[in-house]
Amino acid sequence: MSYDVVALGETMLRLTPPGCERFEQASSWEVHVGGSESNTAVGCARLGLRTAWLSRLTDNALGRMIEGAICQHKVDTRHVVWTDGDRVGTYYLQRGKPPRASQVTYDRAGSAAANWHPYDLPEALFREGESQVLHTTGITLGISESAALTAQRAMELAGDAKWLLSFDVNYRAKLWSPELARERCSLAMERADVVFIAERDVTKLFGIGEADPAKMLEQLGALFARPTLVMTRGSAGAVARGSDGALVTQPAFLAEEVERLGGGDAFSAGYLRGYLETGDMAISLRWGGAVAALKYTTPGDLPLIDAADAEALVKNMGMTGVVR
Fold it and tell me: Is the separation of the CB atoms in 25 and 17 below 8 Å?
C-alpha cells in the first residue's frame, strides 16, 4: 500500500499583519501556507502516516512555495496538477483580542483549485490497496461547481477502490449559503465512513439544536446512519457516535492558545491516526484532542506537532473519555 491517507483540496497563501495590528496599520506581513485538507495531510504525516495531497496549483513562484511548504513534511505532492494559467488563492487574517474579533478576508476567486475538473484527477491512483483513506472537506465542495464535481468524482473512485472516506463539513459562511452547503455536504456525508462536524454547523446546516450533545448526534444519526459522526465542541471537547449508536465523549486538553487556525484540521489528523492504528473510537478522539491542543500552541495554519508530544498527551490518563 502506497498511502494511509490521501487528502484532496485547495491550499492558499495567508497574509497576516504582525501581532494584532489591523490591516490598515500593516507595513509588513507574515506569510503562511494553509488549506484545510493539506493541513490535515501534514498533521497525518508528522504523526507517521504515509500521506499524499491532491490539488491544482499555478506553476509560478507562489504555487511552488505552497507545494514546497507541504512536501517538506513528507507529504507526497507528486499528484498535484500544475497549470500555467489561473492564480494562487490568498486570504488575509487580522488577529483580534476581546472585545475585537479576528477577521478573515478571502481572495480566491479564479484560483487554480477553483478551476479544477474531474478529468484532472489521477484516476490510476484510485486502485484498491493504494490507500486506506480519502480525506476531503466541504470547502472543496463550495469553492466552485467544477471543484465540487472533482471532489464528488474522487469520492466515487475511492469508494470503488474500497478506500474509507473521511469528510470534514468545515462550513464557511463566506464561501456559500447554508442551503447549498447542506445539499452538497449531505451527499458526501451519506458516502462517508467518518464525518467531522462542528457543533455550531450541526445547528446552522441541519437545524438541530439541543443542550445535550448526545441528543444532537442522535438526531444527526437519524439523517446519516452510515458514518461515525464526530462533533467538535471547542473548549467543551468532542463527542463521537458510531453507526451502532455507541457514544464516546472526550474533554478538551488544556492548551495555552497561540493560534486557533488549523485546530480542526489537526483534530482530524489526530483522529485518523488513532482510527487507522486501533479502530477504537475513544482512542481516536483522544488523539484528535491531543493533536488539536498542540496545534493551538504554534502560529500558522500547519499542525507542526511532534508525534512524541502527541503520544504523551494521549497517554495522560487524567483526561479519559467517558463511554456511555
Answer: yes
Are 148 and 141 in contact, with CB atoms under 8 Å apart?
A: yes
- C-alpha cell recorded at residue 311: 503520544
- What pLDDT shows up at residue 256? 87
The catalytic position among 120, 168, 265, 301 is 265
Nearest of 226, 180, 217, 211 to residue 197 by alpha carbon: 217
pLDDT tens digits, residue range 261-294?
Answer: 999 999 999 999 999 999 999 999 999 999 999 9
**Alpha-carbon gap, residue 34 to 168, rounded angstroms:** 16
Q: How far apart are CA 253 and CA 155, in angstroms?
A: 33
CA dihedral 44, 172, 55, 34 (to 10 degrees): -60
**Helix, strand or coil, per DSSP, at residue 157:** helix
Instruction: Identify whether 244 is a catalytic site residue.
Output: no
Q: 145 and 179 in contact (C-beta within 8 Å)?
A: no
Output the nine-digit C-alpha cell for 15: 497574509
Query: Grid coordinates in use for 120?
Result: 484532472
CB atoms within 10 A of CB 24: 7
Sign of the CA dihedral with 101 first, then 203, 291, and 143 last: negative
CA distance 202 to 314: 27
> Going by DSSP bridges, is the β-strand pair 51-54/164-168 parallel, antiparallel, or unpaired?
unpaired
